[in-house]
Amino acid sequence: MDRYLHIFVGKNADYYISKWEVMEATGSKISWNWAAFFFGMLWFAYRKMYSIAIMIMAFLILLQIIQLKMNTPPLIVALTNIFISIGFGMFGNYIYLDFVKNKIKEIKEKYPDENLIIAEIGRNGGTSIISAIMFGLIYLILTGFIDYYFTEVLN
What we know:
Blueprint: H1 2-9, H2 13-26, H3 34-39, H4 41-46, H5 50-69, H6 74-110, H7 114-124, H8 129-153
Helix pairs in contact: 1-2, 1-7, 5-8, 6-7
Pfam families: DUF2628
Keywords: Membrane, Transmembrane, Transmembrane helix
Organism: Venenivibrio stagnispumantis
């Protein structure tokens, strides 16, 4: 499994595996990840956790709509964003571990040949800066339209 983890994670595999080993030894789901804290949804997209990144984007857009409709004070919006970022920082490594294990298990069940397993793990894993950029651009465009609609069109 350790070999598969290295192949799947790719860049910074040693960092993640050492974090995961501590988490499993202590039974904790909490392990700090600065990249997940600062980049949130973009980090999930960068690590190819697309379904999670899409759910986060949908949640953040829904939250923005609610905050705009309720005319939420900027301090509350900022505190909410900080709270969400702390959650990503605390649980990002756990979510990533769960994602990686499930993906590897799925690949092993689908492909009987070891060479195919390794090829698929390599293809499904790793990172994608393009995905992170695309998610960021889509998010900026959507939130820009939403903000414009609520501040200009409805007023």
